[in-house]
Design a protein that fits this description.
The complex is a heterodimer. In chain A, 74% of the residues lie in helices and 3% in strands. The longest helix of chain A is centred in the N-terminal third of the chain and has 21 residues, at 2-22. Chain A is elongated, with a radius of gyration of 18 Å. Chain A contains nine helices and one strand; from the N terminus they run ααααβααααα. In chain A, α2 (28-43) crosses α3 (49-65), α3 packs across α4 (77-96) and α8 packs across α9 (164-182). Chain A folds into two domains: 2-96, Rna Polymerase Sigma Factor, Chain: A; 106-182, Butyryl-CoA Dehydrogenase, subunit A, domain 3 (Up-down Bundle). By secondary structure, chain B is mainly alpha-helical. In chain B, 64% of the residues lie in helices and 6% in strands. Chain B is built from three helices and one strand. Chain B has helices spanning 18-22, 27-38, 46-80, and one strand at 7-11. The longest helix of chain B has 35 residues, at 46-80. Chain B is rod-shaped and about 105 Å long. Chain B starts with 6 loop residues before the first strand and ends with a helix. The chains are: A mainly alpha, B mainly alpha. The A-B interface holds A 24-25, 27-28, 31-32, 35-36, 39-40, 43, 47, 49, 52-53, 56-57, 60-61, 64-65, 99-106, 109, 129, 132-137, 140 and B 3, 5-13, 16, 18, 21-22, 24-27, 29-31, 33-35, 37-38.
Chain lengths: 183, 81
């Protein structure tokens, strides 16, 4: 029953998207549905609410401008929006040349340490913070999505346009590197 | 060897409420920018050609009206003589 309802939900989103391709006024329900998710996704990666709001607007504008190119392949529309959002955030940092803002909870540090097979103590905590401070963009994206946002590898794969297995392999590769640094 | 830090870490940043996020919505701005970016140039719009057609008809009407008036004036002058 839950699967049938999910299919129904996806089907009506598809209808909305097809309508919005012809007339932008039908974009409103899509915007309302996804605004909070996308804003939080962007704000997670920025220091500033206003910048996050600007970039979120830019994400939806780009989505609307490229809506005709979007093809429904059974994945949630949100995956496509997250991909645009990630690109916009990356572009923001390339343009401003600021340090990337990494926002996390204390428990996330513990999760990473445990996942990489380390005991969590003050020393490991400091090493982990230093590692995160120097982590490259592509590796940081994986850590953020997996450990800070608790996304499944399937979803990470959809956002990054790679397979689920590839997302898993890449994430664990980054963890291995971090583990070596923390030892 | 010192490496330049790439990232700035913030721990336990205060979360925004749903109401605060909702305040950041700006659909009107998105739609108006979209309209501006996708607006067809004037010469590609049907109403432009309709206006040109109307102007042409108007010009022709004025031209023939003036021509007829000139002919009538010429005839009147010839009759008087």
């Amino acid at each position: 029953m839950a699967m049938f309802n999910k299919y129904r939900e996806v089907k009506s989103e598809k209808e909305l998207i097809n309508l919005a391709k012809k007339n932008s006024k039908y974009f409103e329900p899509i915007y309302k549905k996804y605004h909070e998710q996308i804003f939080r996704f962007v704000y997670q990666r920025l220091n500033n609410e206003d910048d996050a709001a600007d970039i979120t607007s830019q994400v939806f504008l780009k989505a609307l401008l490229n809506l005709e190119k979007y093809e429904f392949r059974g994945f949630p529309f949100s995956s496509w929006l997250y991909r645009i959002a990630l690109n916009e955030v990356n572009q923001h940092y390339r343009k401003t040349k600021n340090k990337r803002s990494v926002n996390l909870e204390e428990e996330h540090l513990k999760d990473i340490a445990e996942e990489s097979g380390n005991t969590f103590n003050q020393e490991k905590r400091e090493k982990l913070l230093t590692t995160l401070t120097n982590l490259e963009e592509q590796k940081l994206i994986l850590i953020e999505m997996r450990f800070f946002e608790k996304r499944s590898f399937k979803e990470i794969g959809r956002v990054l346009n790679i397979t689920e297995n590839n997302a898993k392999v890449r994430t664990y590769r980054v963890l291995e590197e971090m583990k070596k640094i923390m030892l | 060897m010192s490496t330049k830090e790439k990232n700035s870490i913030n721990i336990n940043r205060k979360k925004l409420s749903a109401a605060q996020v909702k305040q950041k919505e700006n659909l009107d701005s998105v739609l108006s920018k979209h309209k501006m970016l996708t607006k067809r140039p004037v010469y590609k719009q049907k109403k432009f050609y309709f206006l040109v057609f109307l102007l042409l008809i108007l010009t022709l009407l004025i031209y023939y009206a003036d021509k007829e008036e000139a002919e009538n004036n010429t005839q009147t002058t010839a009759q008087e003589h």
